[in-house]
């Protein structure tokens, strides 16, 4: 309105001036022109009034935004400070005052260094100088002190700014990072502890490796020291035995004892060294395709004198067909000779030892050594592969070390095979090994087909039932083999992975299948589904045996279709009872649990 009035007064003054200059003072503007001029003045007046209103609204909005900015500034969760170029606090928000334990007024014109821990002030000065010199925002972390003297970790970020009057200031943002620093310190302590533990484990591993090396070196040295005099003993004893004149009967008996003891001691040294090398992981195997008939023929020639001396007949049935296994030739001969020698040694006069070879799986060959000796009780079978345990034969006339079978077991497993035994008191024993076949020759289905573990004598009137155990853990395999060995009505097939188990199930049609869940190729659940989808194997009851023992795992297993779900560690009675139920189901179709609410035997 004021601007409009000024414009109008200016226009009127111009009008009067022009009128005064006109000759005779006559009017130079017509009435129409005057009205037009006044109309334009009124339009300008309205426009100016509208502009004034917009300016008032803009000013009000600016005042509102400014108030909002100061509210955000004061109530921000981080502290804001404006510092002079020399580090005096010119302005701060409420959060900064709270962090520093002061009032906003109490901070004004105070040097910020007053609130910095003395040990960290050099960090601040270097930070401030870098910001001023570079003109780029910078950040650092240091410890600040509140007004009450308590310290806390703060993250300080600064940037150079310029006020309206050209004064250079620093805009500083403060935030409390104490919790993060404590977490970092705790993590650093944990990392250090972990590093210390790793270093200790490394030290212990190195100590163990050093001990193993010392053990190996000691055994190697002892072997050398023992073999040196033993070589002389055996050498001179043989010279005397074959010398001239011939030894007297009394002398021959003494020589025989010397030679017997010497060869026994040499065998003991060899077996101890073998066991030590295997346990230390230093046994080197030359794995290659080996002609099994050739190796067996060599072994037959080597044990024949022992068999004749003990009046035991030898039979090698089914071992002449061409067949190649993947093994170390020297070690394979060592294993077979040990099994044959034991079968001869622990046999009876007029007894028999039979070795036979049969494909036990699609890609494995089973070599069995059967004797007609006294056999082993269940408690003896449980201790069979323990080092230096001769199963009560220590007082017998036949010498032994109790190491041979342990070495055989370790060697077979090192070559990727399995070893097992079946025995009954008064009926003899069957020791067997399984080794993988190679591509050179793989028996087809046209041959005898898949055959189980060498069978125990079949009870009169009772058909022999077949159990397939699919398990990759050697210890578990051995445990189940020992358990099943107590059942003369059951023969055992084994597989080390799911797909091999499926192949054996299809070919052998076992009565019952024990299935581990965590197999190396496919899970036991996947193997079960494949068996269930195959009409040839869908009828076979499959028992899950797993270390997954929480109730939900059991429920899932039963829902998947397992006949029962057993958990590890294996309970012998529970396994045998479940096996009986499964065999009954396989025979009559009765005994399979419902899925809903079913639990594994022995489970709540």
Here the CATH topology of the largest domain equals Heat Shock Protein 90
* CATH homology group of the largest domain: Histidine kinase-like ATPase, C-terminal domain
Q: Could you say which structural class the secondary elements and strand pairing correspond to? A: alpha/beta
> Tell me, what's the shape?
elongated
What is the average of the pLDDT values?
Answer: 80
Spatial ordering of strands, largest sheet: 2-1-5-4-3
Name of the CATH architecture of the largest domain: 2-Layer Sandwich
> Level of helix content?
40-55%
The total strand number stands at 17
What count of structural domains?
4
Q: Which regions contain 5 or more consecutive residues with pLDDT less than 50?
A: 441-461, 594-604
Strand content: 15-25%
Q: Return Rg in Å.
A: 49 Å
Q: At the first level of CATH, what is the class of the largest domain?
A: Alpha Beta
- What is the helix tally? 16
Major sheet description: 5 strands, antiparallel
How far is it from the N-terminal to the C-terminal residue, by CA?
95 Å
Keywords for this entry:
single chain, 49% helix, Helix Hairpins, 19% strand, elongated, alpha/beta, 17 strands, 604 residues, 4 domains, Beta-Lactamase, five-stranded antiparallel sheet
Description of the molecule:
Helix 8 runs parallel beside helix 9 and helix 9 packs antiparallel against helix 11. The chain contains 16 helices and 17 strands. The chain starts with a helix and ends in a 16-residue tail after the last helix. The C terminus is likely disordered. The radius of gyration is 49 Å and the shape is elongated. The chain is α/β, with parallel strands linked by helices. The strands form four sheets. It has a five-stranded antiparallel β-sheet, with helices on both faces. Strands 7-9-10-12-11 form a five-stranded mixed β-sheet. It has four domains: 72 residues; 100 residues, 2-Layer Sandwich (Beta-Lactamase), CATH 3.30.450.20; 75 residues, Orthogonal Bundle (Helix Hairpins), CATH 1.10.287; 302 residues, 2-Layer Sandwich (Heat Shock Protein 90), CATH 3.30.565.10.
């Amino acid at each position: 309105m004021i601007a409009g009035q000024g414009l109008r007064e200016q226009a009127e003054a111009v009008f009067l001036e022009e009128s005064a200059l006109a000759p005779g003072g006559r009017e130079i503007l017509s009435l129409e022109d005057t009205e037009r001029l006044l109309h334009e003045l009124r339009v300008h007046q309205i426009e100016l009034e509208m502009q004034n209103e917009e300016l008032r609204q803009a000013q009000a909005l600016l005042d509102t935004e400014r108030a909002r900015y100061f509210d955000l500034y004061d109530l921000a969760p981080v502290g804001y400070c404006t510092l002079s170029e020399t580090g005096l606090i010119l302005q701060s928000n409420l959060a900064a005052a709270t962090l520093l334990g002061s009032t906003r007024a109490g901070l004004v014109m105070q040097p910020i260094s007053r609130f910095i821990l003395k040990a960290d002030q050099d960090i601040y000065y270097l930070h401030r100088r870098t910001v001023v010199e570079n003109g780029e925002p910078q950040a650092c972390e240091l410890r600040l002190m509140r007004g009450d003297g308590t310290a806390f970790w703060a993250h300080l970020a600064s940037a150079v700014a310029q006020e309206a009057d050209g004064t250079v200031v620093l805009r500083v943002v403060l935030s409390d990072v104490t919790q993060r620093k404590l977490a970092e310190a705790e993590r650093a302590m944990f990392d250090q502890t972990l590093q210390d533990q790793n270093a200790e484990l490394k030290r212990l591993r190195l100590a163990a490796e050093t001990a193993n090396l010392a053990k190996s070196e000691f055994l190697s040295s002892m072997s050398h020291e023992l073999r040196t005099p033993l070589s002389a003993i055996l050498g001179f004893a043989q010279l005397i035995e074959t010398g001239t004149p011939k030894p007297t009967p009394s002398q021959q008996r003494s020589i025989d004892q010397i030679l017997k003891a010497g060869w026994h001691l040499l065998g003991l040294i060899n077996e101890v060294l073998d066991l030590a090398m295997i346990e230390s992981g230093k046994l080197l195997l030359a794995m290659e395709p080996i002609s099994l008939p050739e190796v067996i023929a060599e072994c037959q020639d080597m044990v024949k004198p022992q068999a004749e001396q003990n009046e035991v007949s030898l039979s090698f049935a089914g071992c002449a067909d061409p067949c190649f296994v993947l093994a170390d030739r020297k070690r394979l001969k060592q294993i077979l000779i040990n099994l044959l020698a034991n079968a001869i040694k622990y046999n009876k006069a007029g007894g028999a030892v039979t070795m036979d070879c049969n494909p036990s799986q699609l890609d494995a060959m089973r070599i069995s050594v059967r004797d007609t000796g006294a056999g082993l009780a269940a408690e003896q079978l449980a201790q069979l592969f323990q080092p230096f345990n001769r199963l009560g034969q220590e007082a017998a006339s036949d010498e032994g070390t109790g190491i041979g079978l342990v070495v055989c077991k370790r060697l077979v497993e090192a070559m990727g095979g399995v070893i097992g035994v079946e025995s009954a008191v008064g009926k003899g024993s069957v020791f067997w090994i399984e080794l993988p076949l190679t591509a050179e020759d793989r028996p087809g289905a046209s041959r005898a087909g898949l055959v189980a573990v060498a069978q125990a004598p079949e009870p009169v009137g009772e058909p022999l039932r077949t159990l397939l155990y699919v398990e990759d853990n050697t210890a578990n395999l051995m445990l189940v083999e020992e358990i099943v060995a107590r059942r003369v009505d059951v023969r055992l097939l084994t597989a080390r992975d799911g797909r091999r188990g499926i192949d054996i199930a299809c070919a052998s049609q076992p009565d019952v299948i024990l299935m581990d869940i965590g197999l190396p190729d496919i899970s036991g659940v996947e193997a079960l589904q494949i068996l269930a989808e195959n009409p040839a194997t869908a009828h076979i009851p499959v028992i899950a045996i797993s270390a997954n023992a929480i109730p939900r795992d059991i429920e899932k297993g039963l829902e998947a279709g397992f006949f029962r779900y057993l958990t590890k560690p294996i309970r012998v009675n529970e396994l045998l009872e479940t096996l009986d139920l499964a065999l009954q189901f396989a025979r009559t179709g009765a005994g399979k649990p419902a899925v809903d609410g079913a639990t594994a035997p022995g489970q709540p």
